[in-house]
């Protein structure tokens, strides 16, 4: 299956997504914390006044023969119905988390105010601006909630073959601490991917990957539109978008609905630079040098997401990387950034990458090894050292073409904070030999 067959993109239509339920049960990073066969040509880009399109793909089940398989077919139907129920339940849970944000944050600020008022009066008088500052935070919360509500307003229509609809009464329920932490982390992703503030972080994480793509697939020797690049763990889509901007056919893949809802908003709803703002640091009550740092706004997007060149081939898929990508010898390049440690078993990722890369294709990786499932009960987690991962990569048959074990970078860092986490990342470029079958 070619890239176009899997998910052909025209950059101006409406995003539609359909994630498998397995993909929606995974964690998210919190800081710190194409084949050459003949195919139908991709559709012509629609008019410029259309919206940007993402297409998605989920893993297809093998068709079941109808004759003499009634019991199995019935069981399959029941399983599908249960899967759809879980998908719908998960979808609504994430929508609810977006809507619950304001309530959650106001409870935090109200608790802070109660603690302040419990101080002796003479101590309260020493801090005449404290309550004024809390009022400013409350206004920032309301602003963030407005953006989050806008993000989820049309999420029920995002999916290619489904409309989940709203819950029965639209009631907002308390969200879990886990979901609220992921939502707050997602707000910081806007900084990393789509703000001027995040440029230095993108320069350290994304630019080395882009440089290797350009080096290995120069426009002087290749038709860039025929170079198929896959970016698993695409987050809010900036790295994949930048690759598509250069003329490559690029597809991003993401499994987190927090990320997918937000990338849909940026790529489909934002068409003027710095037209929106967020207050991503208001959740941080510790390690602030100045009170004003906590309510510092960040503006996004720093570029017009609709400025892709005419005919650009850029798409996004929603779902589990290992489930969606199962066709052999499709991709010229796979670019992973802060991704491989999201695996339960990183060897499974390596196995998938080896399978779907074309012979002669390259895998570019940059990131740390902060294994996401290491401390989660009842979750399989295999934590390998880089030395072990490298040995596995070599045993699969990859050839190492570039390796740097010391790239210093951050992940959704708050430059104003008194506490910052830095990762000393590994970057490598490995090639699948031309002789691979």
TrEMBL record:
Superkingdom in the source lineage: Eukaryota
Entry's EC annotation: 2.1.1.22
Gene Ontology BP, a term: methylation
InterPro entries according to UniProt: CARME, SAM-dependent_MTases_sf
Family of the protein in this entry: Belongs to the carnosine N-methyltransferase family.
PANTHER family, sorted: CARNOSINE N-METHYLTRANSFERASE
Name the record gives this protein: Carnosine N-methyltransferase
Lineage: Eukaryota, Metazoa, Chordata, Craniata, Vertebrata
Annotated gene: CARNMT1
């Amino acid at each position: 299956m070619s890239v176009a067959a899997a998910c052909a993109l025209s950059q101006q239509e409406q995003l539609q997504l359909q994630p498998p339920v397995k993909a929606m049960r995974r964690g998210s990073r919190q800081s710190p914390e194409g084949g050459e066969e003949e195919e139908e040509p991709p559709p012509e880009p629609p008019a410029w006044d259309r919206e940007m399109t993402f297409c998605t793909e989920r893993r297809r089940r093998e068709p079941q023969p109808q004759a003499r398989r009634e019991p199995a077919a019935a069981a399959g139907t029941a399983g599908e119905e249960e899967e759809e129920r879980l998908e719908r339940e998960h979808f609504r849970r994430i929508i609810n988390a977006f809507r619950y944000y304001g309530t959650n944050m106001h409870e935090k600020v109200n608790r802070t105010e109660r603690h302040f008022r419990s101080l002796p009066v003479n101590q309260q008088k020493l801090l005449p601006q404290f309550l004024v500052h809390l009022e400013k935070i409350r206004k920032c919360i309301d602003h963030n909630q407005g953006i989050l509500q806008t993000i989820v307003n049309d999420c029920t229509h995002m999916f290619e073959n489904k409309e989940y609809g709203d819950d029965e009464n639209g009631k907002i329920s308390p969200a879990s601490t886990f979901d609220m932490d992921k939502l707050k982390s997602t707000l910081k992703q806007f900084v990393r991917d789509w703000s001027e503030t995040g440029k230095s972080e993108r320069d350290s994480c994304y630019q080395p990957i882009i440089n290797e793509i350009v080096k290995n697939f120069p426009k002087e020797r290749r038709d860039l539109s025929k170079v198929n690049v896959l970016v698993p763990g695409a987050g809010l889509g900036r790295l994949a978008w930048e690759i598509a901007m250069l003329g490559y056919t690029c597809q991003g893949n993401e499994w987190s609905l927090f990320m997918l809802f937000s990338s849909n908003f940026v790529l489909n709803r934002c068409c003027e630079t710095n037209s929106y703002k967020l207050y991503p640091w208001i959740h941080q009550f510790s390690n602030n040098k100045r009170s004003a740092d906590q309510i510092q706004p960040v503006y996004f997007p720093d570029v017009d997401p609709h400025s892709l060149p005419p005919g650009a081939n850029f798409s996004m898929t929603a779902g589990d990387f290992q489930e969606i990508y199962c066709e052999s010898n499709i991709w010229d390049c796979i670019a992973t950034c802060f991704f491989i440690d999201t695996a339960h078993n990183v060897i499974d990722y390596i196995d998938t990458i080896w399978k779907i890369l074309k012979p002669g294709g390259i895998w570019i990786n940059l990131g740390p090894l902060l294994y996401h499932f290491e401390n989660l009960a009842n979750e399989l987690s295999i934590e390998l050292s880089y030395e072990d991962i490298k040995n596995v990569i070599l045993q699969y048959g990859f050839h190492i073409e570039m390796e740097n074990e010391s790239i210093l970078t951050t992940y959704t860092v708050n430059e104003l904070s008194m506490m910052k986490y830095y990762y000393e990342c590994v970057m490598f470029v490995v090639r699948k030999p031309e002789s691979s079958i």
